[in-house]
Amino acid sequence: MKVAVSGASGKTGFRVAEEALKKRYEVKLITRQASIVPPSLKSCQVERLSLFNKDELDNALLGVDTLIIATGARPNIDLTGPAKIDAVGVGNQVESCKRVGVNRIVLVSSLCVGKFLHPLNLFGLILLWKKIGEDKVINSGIDWTIIRPGGLNESEEGLQSQNILYTEKNSQEEGSIPRRLVARTCIESLDIKKANKKIIEITSSEENKSLSMKEAIEGFYTVSNNKLYK
Questions:
Q1: Taking a C-beta distance cutoff of 8 angstroms, is the pair 35, 29 a contact?
Q2: pTM
Q3: Phi and psi torsions of 118, nearest 5°
Q4: What is the pLDDT of residues 69-124, one digit of tens each?
Q5: What is the CATH code of the structural domain delimited by 2-229?
Q6: Where are the domains positioned within the chain?
Q7: How far apart are CA 169 and CA 171, in angstroms?
Q8: CA distance 164 to 25
Protein backbone atom coordinates (compact mmCIF):
# COMPACT_ATOMS: atom_id res chain seq x y z
CA MET A 1 0.00 0.00 0.00
CA LYS A 2 1.18 3.50 -0.81
CA VAL A 3 0.35 5.91 2.02
CA ALA A 4 0.69 9.68 1.93
CA VAL A 5 0.83 11.64 5.19
CA SER A 6 0.04 15.34 5.05
CA GLY A 7 1.40 17.46 7.87
CA ALA A 8 4.18 14.87 7.99
CA SER A 9 6.71 17.14 9.69
CA GLY A 10 4.30 17.98 12.51
CA LYS A 11 4.37 16.44 15.98
CA THR A 12 1.66 13.90 15.16
CA GLY A 13 2.32 13.61 11.45
CA PHE A 14 5.92 12.45 11.66
CA ARG A 15 4.89 9.77 14.14
CA VAL A 16 2.15 8.60 11.77
CA ALA A 17 4.75 8.30 9.01
CA GLU A 18 7.12 6.37 11.30
CA GLU A 19 4.36 3.91 12.21
CA ALA A 20 3.47 3.46 8.54
CA LEU A 21 7.10 2.63 7.78
CA LYS A 22 7.07 0.00 10.53
CA LYS A 23 4.23 -1.69 8.66
CA ARG A 24 6.39 -1.60 5.54
CA TYR A 25 4.05 0.69 3.64
CA GLU A 26 5.48 2.88 0.92
CA VAL A 27 5.27 6.34 2.49
CA LYS A 28 5.10 9.75 0.87
CA LEU A 29 5.41 12.86 3.02
CA ILE A 30 3.41 16.00 2.21
CA THR A 31 4.80 19.07 3.93
CA ARG A 32 5.07 22.82 3.64
CA GLN A 33 8.01 24.28 1.75
CA ALA A 34 9.98 25.28 4.85
CA SER A 35 9.25 22.17 6.94
CA ILE A 36 12.09 20.07 8.35
CA VAL A 37 11.71 16.32 7.93
CA PRO A 38 13.12 14.16 10.79
CA PRO A 39 16.08 11.86 9.97
CA SER A 40 13.89 8.84 10.78
CA LEU A 41 11.91 9.56 7.60
CA LYS A 42 14.86 10.00 5.24
CA SER A 43 13.77 6.97 3.19
CA CYS A 44 10.43 8.57 2.30
CA GLN A 45 9.60 10.57 -0.77
CA VAL A 46 8.92 14.19 0.18
CA GLU A 47 6.48 16.53 -1.57
CA ARG A 48 6.77 20.16 -0.48
CA LEU A 49 3.70 22.11 -1.50
CA SER A 50 0.83 24.42 -0.61
CA LEU A 51 -2.52 22.95 0.37
CA PHE A 52 -4.04 25.70 -1.72
CA ASN A 53 -2.34 24.73 -4.97
CA LYS A 54 -4.59 22.31 -6.85
CA ASP A 55 -1.98 21.09 -9.32
CA GLU A 56 0.67 20.50 -6.66
CA LEU A 57 -1.75 18.49 -4.53
CA ASP A 58 -2.94 16.39 -7.47
CA ASN A 59 0.62 15.59 -8.52
CA ALA A 60 1.59 14.64 -4.97
CA LEU A 61 -1.38 12.30 -4.49
CA LEU A 62 -1.26 10.61 -7.87
CA GLY A 63 -0.83 6.85 -7.36
CA VAL A 64 -1.50 7.05 -3.60
CA ASP A 65 -3.85 4.46 -2.04
CA THR A 66 -4.48 6.15 1.31
CA LEU A 67 -4.10 9.73 2.53
CA ILE A 68 -3.68 10.30 6.26
CA ILE A 69 -4.44 13.94 7.01
CA ALA A 70 -2.45 15.13 10.03
CA THR A 71 -2.47 18.80 9.12
CA GLY A 72 -3.79 21.19 11.75
CA ALA A 73 -3.73 24.88 12.55
CA ARG A 74 -1.16 25.92 15.15
CA PRO A 75 -1.75 28.53 17.89
CA ASN A 76 -1.08 31.88 16.26
CA ILE A 77 -2.11 35.51 16.42
CA ASP A 78 -3.68 34.93 13.01
CA LEU A 79 -7.11 33.63 14.05
CA THR A 80 -7.97 32.72 10.46
CA GLY A 81 -5.57 29.74 10.67
CA PRO A 82 -8.20 27.13 11.65
CA ALA A 83 -10.49 28.18 8.81
CA LYS A 84 -7.63 27.99 6.31
CA ILE A 85 -6.09 24.71 7.47
CA ASP A 86 -8.81 22.68 9.21
CA ALA A 87 -11.65 23.54 6.83
CA VAL A 88 -10.38 24.81 3.47
CA GLY A 89 -7.09 22.91 3.60
CA VAL A 90 -8.78 19.61 4.48
CA GLY A 91 -11.43 20.25 1.84
CA ASN A 92 -8.77 20.84 -0.79
CA GLN A 93 -7.08 17.57 0.08
CA VAL A 94 -10.39 15.72 -0.15
CA GLU A 95 -11.16 17.19 -3.57
CA SER A 96 -7.70 16.22 -4.79
CA CYS A 97 -8.25 12.65 -3.56
CA LYS A 98 -11.46 12.50 -5.56
CA ARG A 99 -9.79 13.80 -8.71
CA VAL A 100 -6.81 11.41 -8.68
CA GLY A 101 -8.51 8.31 -7.27
CA VAL A 102 -7.21 7.93 -3.71
CA ASN A 103 -9.14 5.03 -2.15
CA ARG A 104 -9.19 6.00 1.52
CA ILE A 105 -8.78 8.98 3.83
CA VAL A 106 -7.88 8.93 7.53
CA LEU A 107 -8.34 12.31 9.23
CA VAL A 108 -6.82 13.23 12.59
CA SER A 109 -9.36 15.56 14.21
CA SER A 110 -10.16 16.30 17.87
CA LEU A 111 -12.53 15.54 20.73
CA CYS A 112 -15.45 17.97 21.04
CA VAL A 113 -15.51 18.83 17.34
CA GLY A 114 -18.54 20.96 16.51
CA LYS A 115 -19.00 22.32 20.03
CA PHE A 116 -19.32 26.10 20.26
CA LEU A 117 -18.96 26.70 24.00
CA HIS A 118 -15.48 25.28 24.45
CA PRO A 119 -12.18 26.93 25.47
CA LEU A 120 -10.44 25.71 22.31
CA ASN A 121 -12.71 27.94 20.26
CA LEU A 122 -10.92 30.97 21.65
CA PHE A 123 -8.34 30.03 19.03
CA GLY A 124 -10.25 31.00 15.88
CA LEU A 125 -13.32 28.78 16.49
CA ILE A 126 -11.14 25.79 15.74
CA LEU A 127 -13.66 23.11 16.74
CA LEU A 128 -16.27 24.52 14.37
CA TRP A 129 -13.85 24.64 11.44
CA LYS A 130 -12.70 21.09 12.20
CA LYS A 131 -16.33 19.98 11.92
CA ILE A 132 -16.51 21.45 8.43
CA GLY A 133 -13.33 19.56 7.56
CA GLU A 134 -14.80 16.32 8.91
CA ASP A 135 -17.97 16.82 6.88
CA LYS A 136 -15.88 17.22 3.72
CA VAL A 137 -14.33 13.81 4.41
CA ILE A 138 -17.62 12.13 5.31
CA ASN A 139 -19.38 13.39 2.19
CA SER A 140 -16.48 12.65 -0.16
CA GLY A 141 -17.74 9.32 -1.45
CA ILE A 142 -14.35 7.85 -0.52
CA ASP A 143 -13.78 5.29 2.25
CA TRP A 144 -12.79 7.14 5.41
CA THR A 145 -11.97 6.96 9.10
CA ILE A 146 -11.89 9.96 11.43
CA ILE A 147 -9.77 9.75 14.57
CA ARG A 148 -10.69 12.22 17.33
CA PRO A 149 -7.98 12.21 20.01
CA GLY A 150 -8.13 13.92 23.36
CA GLY A 151 -5.43 16.31 24.60
CA LEU A 152 -2.15 15.42 22.91
CA ASN A 153 1.09 14.90 24.80
CA GLU A 154 4.65 14.17 23.69
CA SER A 155 5.41 11.33 26.09
CA GLU A 156 7.15 8.30 24.59
CA GLU A 157 7.58 6.53 27.93
CA GLY A 158 5.32 3.94 29.48
CA LEU A 159 3.23 3.51 26.34
CA GLN A 160 2.76 -0.20 27.01
CA SER A 161 0.89 0.60 30.23
CA GLN A 162 -1.48 3.01 28.47
CA ASN A 163 -4.75 1.40 27.41
CA ILE A 164 -6.71 3.24 24.74
CA LEU A 165 -10.38 3.98 25.27
CA TYR A 166 -12.08 3.77 21.88
CA THR A 167 -15.59 5.22 21.68
CA GLU A 168 -17.99 6.36 18.99
CA LYS A 169 -18.50 10.04 18.19
CA ASN A 170 -19.56 12.56 20.84
CA SER A 171 -18.90 10.12 23.68
CA GLN A 172 -15.82 11.70 25.29
CA GLU A 173 -15.17 15.31 26.28
CA GLU A 174 -11.95 15.15 28.27
CA GLY A 175 -8.81 13.10 28.67
CA SER A 176 -5.45 12.91 26.95
CA ILE A 177 -3.37 10.56 24.85
CA PRO A 178 0.26 10.38 23.66
CA ARG A 179 0.74 11.39 20.03
CA ARG A 180 2.49 8.06 19.40
CA LEU A 181 -0.70 6.17 20.27
CA VAL A 182 -2.70 8.43 17.98
CA ALA A 183 -0.29 7.58 15.18
CA ARG A 184 -0.60 3.86 15.87
CA THR A 185 -4.38 4.14 15.88
CA CYS A 186 -4.35 5.78 12.45
CA ILE A 187 -2.26 2.98 10.98
CA GLU A 188 -4.15 0.22 12.78
CA SER A 189 -7.43 1.50 11.34
CA LEU A 190 -6.19 0.67 7.84
CA ASP A 191 -6.26 -3.06 8.66
CA ILE A 192 -9.72 -3.09 10.26
CA LYS A 193 -12.65 -3.23 7.85
CA LYS A 194 -15.11 -2.10 10.52
CA ALA A 195 -13.12 1.11 11.01
CA ASN A 196 -14.36 2.23 7.61
CA LYS A 197 -16.85 5.12 7.79
CA LYS A 198 -16.34 5.43 11.54
CA ILE A 199 -15.61 8.39 13.78
CA ILE A 200 -13.46 7.00 16.59
CA GLU A 201 -12.72 9.01 19.72
CA ILE A 202 -9.61 8.03 21.68
CA THR A 203 -8.02 8.82 25.03
CA SER A 204 -5.71 6.66 27.10
CA SER A 205 -4.84 5.81 30.69
CA GLU A 206 -3.56 2.92 32.77
CA GLU A 207 -7.03 2.48 34.27
CA ASN A 208 -8.81 1.76 31.00
CA LYS A 209 -9.77 -1.80 30.18
CA SER A 210 -7.43 -3.37 27.65
CA LEU A 211 -9.50 -3.65 24.49
CA SER A 212 -8.48 -3.74 20.84
CA MET A 213 -9.87 -1.29 18.33
CA LYS A 214 -11.61 -4.11 16.50
CA GLU A 215 -13.34 -5.27 19.67
CA ALA A 216 -14.27 -1.75 20.70
CA ILE A 217 -16.02 -0.77 17.49
CA GLU A 218 -18.25 -3.82 17.33
CA GLY A 219 -21.10 -1.73 18.72
CA PHE A 220 -20.39 1.39 16.70
CA TYR A 221 -22.54 2.70 13.88
CA THR A 222 -21.68 3.15 10.20
CA VAL A 223 -22.48 6.43 8.47
CA SER A 224 -23.79 5.98 4.93
CA ASN A 225 -25.70 8.54 2.86
CA ASN A 226 -26.24 10.66 5.99
CA LYS A 227 -28.08 7.79 7.70
CA LEU A 228 -26.95 5.55 10.55
CA TYR A 229 -26.77 1.80 10.16
CA LYS A 230 -25.77 -0.59 12.90
A1: no
A2: 0.94
A3: -150, 140
A4: 999 998 777 899 999 999 999 999 999 999 999 999 999 999 999 999 999 999 99
A5: 3.40.50.720
A6: 2-229
A7: 6
A8: 24
